Amino acid sequence: MPWIDVNGVALRYQDSGAGEIPLVLLHEMGGTLESWDFLVPLLPPRLRVLRLDLRGAGLSEKPVAPFTMEDLGQDVLALCDALGLVAPIVPMGCAVGGALALHLAARHPARMRAVIATSPATSVVAERKEALRARADELERRGARALTDAGLERGYPTVLRDDAARFALTRAQRMAADPQGFAGTMRMLADLDMEAELGRIACPALLLAGTHDQDRPPEGVRAVAARIPGAEFRELPSGHFMAIQTPALVAEAMLRFLG
Q1: What digits encode the pLDDT tens for the residues 44-100?
Q2: Is residue 41 one of the residues assigned to a domain?
Q3: Assigned domain for 178 exists
Q4: Range of the domain at 27
Q5: What is the distance between the alpha carbons of residues 179 and 140, in angstroms, rounded to a whole number?
Q6: From residue 61, how far is each of 8, 137, 179 by CA, in Å?
Q7: Rounded to the nearest 5°, which phi and psi values hold at 52?
Q8: How is 90-129 classified by DSSP, letter by letter?
Q9: How many CB atoms lie under 10 A from the CB of residue 126?
């Protein structure tokens, strides 16, 4: 998988397929482009699939300076431009990646065909902001391993761990996350409030919630969908990492939406 230097940051990406519909996959906090490994093989050839490690994650650059959702959005668009991807895109993201997909749809309507978000993290309630910043500090002191299991209890509960190897893979991948980049994304989320942006989304939108997701429960995702004109909401028997946990269900929902 190649790297490219765009928008002042080096990004690792994978560009596959030659379909007429560009699908841009945006991973969750602590994830990487491999977060989509179980979903991509289920997608039809009419999609051109672009995925990347967001700044601060995976094998992309880990800037020392704080970054914002606007920075991440500009990274994605700069990557699309560099690859000659000029057709309207379908950004699809999980959690913070879902918020990024919605941010792109709100800020750059002319470049959007549709948008898909699973368990989008568009804001944090006031009483959780300081706790999230404290968690970011702990990440930098103790590393990702110290916080991984508690996070997976909420987003990848026992009821979804029937595939033990897949759960072990996800757990190990999250333990390997860069503490500085992970913490930087947490601090960005602590300051995030997309309330005003959601009402500006004009393209077709699909929001997916997981029944067993304790990080972003269905009622919260439904509330986000209600703020987007004409958005479709669906609840799946899945969790926070549904493209890993139940990729077939996600593929069915997104392809029915796109079709």
Answers
A1: 999 999 999 999 999 999 999 999 999 999 999 999 999 999 899 999 999 999 999
A2: yes
A3: no
A4: 3-123+193-258
A5: 5
A6: 10, 20, 13
A7: -150, 160
A8: EEEEETHHHHHHHHHHHH-GGGBS-EEEES---B--HHHH
A9: 8
